[in-house]
Every structure is written in C-alpha cells, then in structure tokens.
Amino acid sequence: MVRTGPLRIVFFGTPGFALSTFDSLLSSQHEVVSVVTRADRPRGRGQRTTEPPIKVRAIAAGIPVLQPDRLQDHAFLDALKAARPDLGVVVAYGKILTDAVLATPVLGLLNVHASLLPKYRGAAPVHRAVIAGEQESGVTIMRMVRALDAGPMLASARRAIHPDETSVDVERDLAQLGAELLMSMLGDFVAGTITGQPQDESAATYAPRLSREDGVVDWHLPAAAIHNLVRGLHPWPHAFTFHSGHRLILLRSSLASSPGAPGGTVVEAAGNRLVIAARDGAVALEELRPEGKRSMTPREFLAGHRVSVGDRLTPTA
User: Fold this and answer.
1) pTM for the predicted model, two decimal places
2) 164 and 279: one domain?
3) What 8-state DSSP symbol labels residue 38?
4) Residue 316: inside a domain, yes or no?
5) Are the beta carbons of 174 and 134 closer than 8 angstroms?
C-alpha cells in the first residue's frame, strides 16, 4: 500500500542508541503518535528505578508512552490500534514483536538494526562484533517479521571499526548512521519503490544479550582476543580479572609485546605501565578499576596496590 503525505508513526525503542532515530522522526514531517518502550528498571548500586531514555524524551515531547509487560496484553493492543499508526519504527526495543503488533501499522514495521545482516542478529550486535575483532560493522534497515531480525533488508550502510575503538565509539556512530539511513530511504519505502532483499540464512550469526559472566578474562587467549574483549564490553559489563583475590575491572587496554611469560603473568609494573602476558604477546592495561573504587591509571593503581613482576592474574578469586 502506497501512502502520501505525513505518516502516523509508532516508535518502539528503549536505550540511548534509539534516540538519534527518534529525534530525527520528531523533527521530520511525520508525526510520532505513540512510543512503546520497556518497563522502568532499577539500576546502579542503589537500585534506583530509572526510566528508559526513550521514555524520558517522549514525555518531554508530549508523546503518549506505552510500557506493556506483555505484548499480548489487550489494553496495550487496544491503545496501539487507537493510535491508528501508518508505520512502526523499531530501534533496540528489546522484545520480539507478536503477530498482533506486526499487523497493526498499515505499512508494517521497519527495524533499524546495528549490524550488517544477516550477521549479528540479536540483542548485542555492536558489542559482539567488537569482541569478535570485526574490522567493519554497519546498520541495516529491514522489514520486521515474526522471526528474530530475519526480515527482508531494505537498506544498509557500513562503518569501519578501528583496532582500539570501544563499543561506545562504534555504537554512537551507528546510532547516527541508522537515523540518517532511515530518513533517506523512508520516502522511497512509502512510495513502494524499494524491494526488500531476503537474508542469506546460511550466513546468519547470533549476538546474544550480554551478561556479567561474559567479562571473565582468560589470559591463555591471544592478546588481541583479550584486548577485543576489554573494548567490546565497554561500557558494560566490562572485562575483569583477579589479583590476589581482588577483582579488577578492565576499562581500557592496548596491545604490547611480551618476553614469553605464561598467560596472566605481570611482565611490567612500573610508572604508568602495567602489562600482562597473554598466550601470544601481552596486554597493557590503560585504565582499570578495583571493585568498589574509582577508575585509575596504571600509575595511580600501582601507587596504592602491591603488584610485582611475576605476579599472576587469574579468572577467579
């Protein structure tokens, strides 16, 4: 079905990554008639209930917000239908949409996904790509179907991943790239001139949600793999290791050379240098945080902690 004129759009999104696309839609000719986001959640050490970034922005813009616990909820579906959306736009919402939701907007739903599909379907595409040492990522806009991130692809854009970039760096740029890509293709999509390209299922990979357990550092891995883990798990949940039974959270790292010591061995610990041997090469810790304390440079950490060359870092206390 072809539409002319401004669209009535329902926006599905939750984290800060979704804000660029949301803001672009707000400043366009189209009308965002409703926002669907995840429930408020307790966060931080104090477990204070925090509203999702998209909810905060939507309330400031005077847009109705829906936060259903279950997408099958009749009250939610009634409210969604009452908004009379022409189109749904989904950016990192966090739940798989039901058939009833998919059938509600007249033109269906588009998803702005932070990977070059079919690689890295799922909840953590940017982080998993950085952890895997990928040299390129991007965004794909697809038409949503019931299966996870499996719909036909309508547009994509690429971005290089540089060797020392963290997930924060990559995700920030992909958020803006995705917003620009959506706005550039939306007119053609509505006009019916874009034909979706099926995904190659044989090339599909999965990017599961992150957990704290993903951060355990195995010092017997290659140095590059450990460095990729540190930058891929920044800003959360972070890579971590243990020294003398105390957990150290690794915030920034770089690659270094090693005299061939066993993995996990401290090979430099002086001045602003704290270097740990890996299976091949070594990892220089550029910023770290002892659990329960502030982040520190190696110099600050070494000034307050007894660390000697030959000490071993371990995956458990």
Assistant:
1) 0.94
2) no
3) P
4) no
5) no
